[in-house]
Amino acid sequence: xxxxxxxxxxxxxxxxxxxxxxxxxxxxxxxxxxxxxxxxxxxxxxxxxxxxxxxxxxxxxxxxxxxxxxxxxxxxxxxxxxxxxxxxxxxxxxxxxxxxxxxxxxxxxxxxxxxxxxxxxxxxxxxxxxxxxxxxxxxxxxxxxxxxxxxxxxxxxxxxxxxxxxxxxxx
Amino acid sequence: xxxxxxxxxxxxxxxxxxxxxxxxxxxxxxxxxxxxxxxxxxxxxxxxxxxxxxxxxxxxxxxxxxxxxxxxxxxxxxxxxxxxxxxxxxxxxxxxxxxxxxxxxxxxxxxxxxxxxxxxxxxxxxxxxxxxxxxxxxxxxxxxxxxxxxxxxxxxxxxxxxxxxxxxxxx
Lengths: 171, 171
What we know:
The structure is a homodimer. Chain A is an alpha+beta fold. Chain A has one domain: Cyclic Phosphodiesterase, Chain: A (Alpha-Beta Complex). Helices cover 29% and strands 32% of the residues of chain A. Chain A is built from 4 helices and 8 strands; from the N terminus they run βαβαββαβαβββ. Chain A starts with a strand and ends in a 5-residue tail after the last strand. Chain A binds chain B through residues 1, 8, 11, 14-15, 18, 22, 28-29, 32, 147, 149, 152, 154-156, 158-164, 166, and chain B through 1, 8, 11, 14-15, 18, 22, 28-29, 32, 147, 149, 152, 154-156, 158-164, 166. Chains A, B: It is an enzyme of class 3 (hydrolase).
C-alpha cells in the first residue's frame, strides 16, 4: 500500500488554501491542504509495525513545527505547481530528515522545499495567469503545528489518515 | 469549529464503498468512507483540551471494534441514504455511548445504527433503482478497526483528521 507523511495546518490556513485550490488544484478533492513531509512510498503489511514505532519515536523527539508562510511561488519550469512557500526551519528540517532515513526510504533526488500546494496540473497559460494574480496578494501567515500524520492512498487517489502523532513529549 | 468522530475501515472496504460512492454519494469528495460515531458537534478552542483528554481515556478503555457488514440498507423514508449495514456489537456501542456522555454532547434524538454510507441525496427514482441493484449484491465483510479519529470540518464541507486514538491499551 502507498503511504505518505504530511502535516495539516490550522483550519484558517486550510480554508485560505482551499479558496485557491477549488479552482486551481487538480487534487482538491483528494486530500485537504497539507505540507508534504514524505512523498508517497510503498509499505507492506509486515513493515508497518516497525515504521509506526519509529514514527512514534521520531515524533516524540521532535518539536512542534514552526510554519512561516512568506510568499507564493512556483516549481516552474519543473512543473506548473503553485504553492505557499514556507520558510525553512529546523523543526521542519528535522522531520524531513528523520523520515528520509532508515527504516524509511532515502531521498537523494530532491531537496526539501516546504510548501502548501494551491495549484497544479495547470496549462502554461493558466499557470502564468494565476501566478501573476497571486503574486499581487500579500500572503503571510505564521502558526505552530503539533501533529504529524501518516496517510494511505485509496484506489481513487484520495488519502485517508491512518494515524496521527503528537510532536514533542506528552506533558 | 465543527468536529466529528469517526472510524475509518481498511483500504479494501473503503475502495469497495468508493466504487459506489463515486456515483451515488454527494459527500464522495468531502471525506473517505467511514463509520460515524458522533455526528458534527461544535467545540470551541477552550473546550478542546478537555475533550482530547477524555477521548484519549475513552479510547484506552475501549477495545478494537468488530465490524461485521451483512447487508445493504436504507434510511428511507427518513432520507434517501443507502449504506452498508454493520451488525451491532458491544465494542461499537461502547464508543457510541461514551462519546454521547459528558463532557460530550448527549443524543436523545436518534438510536445508533452503525453503517458506512454509500449513497445520499439521491432522487426518489435513483434511490429506488440503486437500492434495487445493490440488494442483489451479496455484501459481507468482517474486520477489526483499532483506531478512532477526531476530525474537523473546513468551510468547503471537507473533513480533516485532527487526531487519531488507538483503541485499547498500548502493548
